[in-house]
Request: fold
Amino acid sequence: MSDFKEILALAEEIYLNPELGFKEIKTSQLIQNFIEKVYPDGEIIKFAETGVKFNLGEKKALHIALIAEMDAVYTPSHFHADKLTGAAHNCGHYSQVAIMLSLLKKLINNDEYKSLDFSLGFIFTPAEEYLDLEYRKELQREGVISFLGGKPEAIKLGIFDEYDLAIAVHSMGGELNKRSIELNCNLAGFLYKYYTFKGKPAHAGFAPQAGINAYSMSTLFNTALGLYRQQIDEKFMVRINPVIMESHMGTNVIPDKIKIGTDIRAHSVEYMLELSKRLDTMAKCSAKALGGEVDIETNMGYLPFIQSRYLSNFVRKSFEEFDEIEYCKDNSPVSAAGDIGDLSYILPCIQIGYNGFAGTFHGNDFIHKDSKYIFSIFPRFLLKVLKDMSGKIDKNSLYKKSYEDYKNTILNFGGLDEK
Reply:
């Protein structure tokens, strides 16, 4: 079997067996089996239930982490969703795993990795998608994990302590006619807010005046938020999406309790905190105006991802010398988020995008289309990037922060429940 057919078969096996975060048991085992086959001398480290880490060769003065994500998205309507769990690989993480394993094999062939002036570690992280939260919160309560995302958990466990920078890859949304890569696609950070408005029940027909309507408080809150949107600074690419999380309402009873949940997404930690305080004020005033109360809960999501322009410049130069990729999309930030934002807080990171898919990103028909590009040409491009970087990275242009620095930052969001 050729290398391409082997990698494609592995990718399709993962694609057809999707698993949600911290449950990637089959995927993790496939990765481990592949590593043991092509690099039997490597020491494999398991972390955070299903995460896999190993280093290639002896550690050098400059040490680089190569990252792939393993988990699927919850989309029961996807045409290849798991019928029991509803998991589906419509974000392309399965292709990340296959690409990195293809790159690994290319590095091992002819001892290519030995000629680089830096050493490499491969990190396969669980639970990038922020979902299935009740399961993850149960793991928190049991002390199995501290964070709801895979990379924050890995940061806490010290998985990235030895590395100086990280390179990740990710599928690009939307179909492009040309084989393409994407650089410097910054991502938003986000947090979750939960507002539980509390009033007083009463018979809606006989004596509505005796009640205090919690639903009306939430309506007033949503109205205030709608009117406030024109004051939001657009340069931070803010997204706010309030929805009803819990309610037990009937038309004959004044509702006394309703829970509203919303995310707050932005490309600035400081601005997310400012918006969080603004929304808290709106909620408190909406409750007070109608004689009720509100309980407020804040959960940390992920930090914004600001890609390292210094490192991206190496990739751009490699692209200019690589004829098999025709187009480079550059500097197009989006309001989507990822836990690589948390990792980029402690060390420089880039995430190189690649196309070649059909269907809707996170939709019910997402699948690989240009398999040759994704699983053969793109890994060869990554190998070229690494070779082009060798001997040229200035360690003084990099930064490093500790887990304590990270922890102190996310404490501002009320998002740490460390076990």
Observations:
- The CA atoms of residues 38 and 109 lie 9 Å apart.
- The mean pLDDT is 95.
- The radius of gyration is 23 Å.
- The first helix runs from residue 3 to 15.
